[in-house]
Fold:
Amino acid sequence: MIRRRHVLAAGVTLPFTATARVTPRVVVIGGGFGGATAARFLRRNGVSATLLEPNATFVACPFSNAVISGERRLDAQKFGYAAIAAEGVKVVHAAATSVDTNGKSVTVSDGTKIPYDRLILSPGIDIIWGGLEGYDEAAAARLPHAWQAGEQTLLLRRQLEAMPDGGLVVMSVPPNPYRCPPGPYERASLIAWYLKSHKPRSKILVLDAKDVFSKQKLFQNAWKQLYPGLLEWVSLSDGGKVVRVDPASLTFETEFGSHKADVGIVVPPQRAGAIAVLSGAADRSGWCPIDPVTFESRLVPGVHVLGDAAIAGAMPKSAFAANAQAKVCADAVSALLRGDKPEEPRLINTCYSVAAPEYGFSVAGVYRPVNGMLTEIEGAGGTSPLDAPETQRVQEARYGDRWFQTITAEVFG
Amino acid sequence: MTGRAGIGLMLILAAAAPAPPGASSCSGCHGAEAPIAGHDAKEMTESLNGYRSGARPSTVMGRIVKGFTEPELIAIADWWAARK
Structure:
């Protein structure tokens, strides 16, 4: 007895009962930037990891705005799971349909039950259909969201290409929180770039349910400089909040009036992916409260949540954050399975946006747990300087490209 | 069984030192290979301190390193230096 405890204290992955398995099993649901990273890093820690992801190909959202503006091909956004499987992760291309958190198993679409010692949920976002009046699943075929990259991205691209010069693009932006806080503004910028070069008599109107947004001054400076008269942003205070859309007539209604679009985009209200809700890990906000050291759910023991689905305090819902959280979570889960106490983490986020192809800037943050919440460390982080020379904008656009190559290589390569 | 096996396992664990706080985030931009993995620890610490003081110009690194103390940066540099 003493001996066994001694060995456990040394942090060894030994059975907790005489008949149990030697290797603990972790199931990871969702093969995006968060889940795929978590599965790989668990495997490197000697933990058996099963990755459940219905799609054989992942289509990355970061940089997909450049597909919409025609600067990039969608193929450059696509990644497979072969390298992850080759590393020893069991990749199962099936959807998780339910979770038995008491019996500790996941049921997948073909009815198979997969047992786990710990479960990691990285399901990303789901769109709340009907969360904006008039915007249901059918409406997305007329008014694309393109907030989950793939067919929607291409649909929006085709609509922009088909729009005659002199047309009006309208985009509705929801209140916080949602995936990729600066994403709508980067999209507006790149669409304006496309219009300026191909359809200069056209215009993009951004109707926002907020008064402030990520990298705001950097975007607004760039808009003034690059897209005067071409891109108009209407804040909440100025009546920008869209209350209803009509997909048949492509009309956006605010509290003050309505705008008829030639191409309409709805960045829709969102919540944690459905499996997080089904597992009981989401609270009434639709997102998942977590412990900031282990990313274990505050609501369901043995279940960890990371990436966009989690309420990660001050950390934004970004691919970089999901990847960073996954590495911390994989180490914490490995420690817990050994019977060790996970170390208090420090997390970093870095996020690049472009206002035009060679015009980039960034926001960064460093985070640590304070009173149970991931909190931004004061004096660190922040955005690129407003008065940076053009050379720095070019440099940061290139760093953004490199970031995408590096992170996708770490996750999928 | 156990005395000897226990020592063997402890040695394995000592070899795979866990990442100090913050270190695992670095590969999000830099990757888990060269130039940061296996880079000379002293040189890396000097660079990081230079970013913080501003003596070494940067776009984003100066903003990031301000979230760490000097001993924390040394621990991160040591950990990456020991990787290959």
About this structure: The two ends of chain A are 44 Å apart (CA to CA).
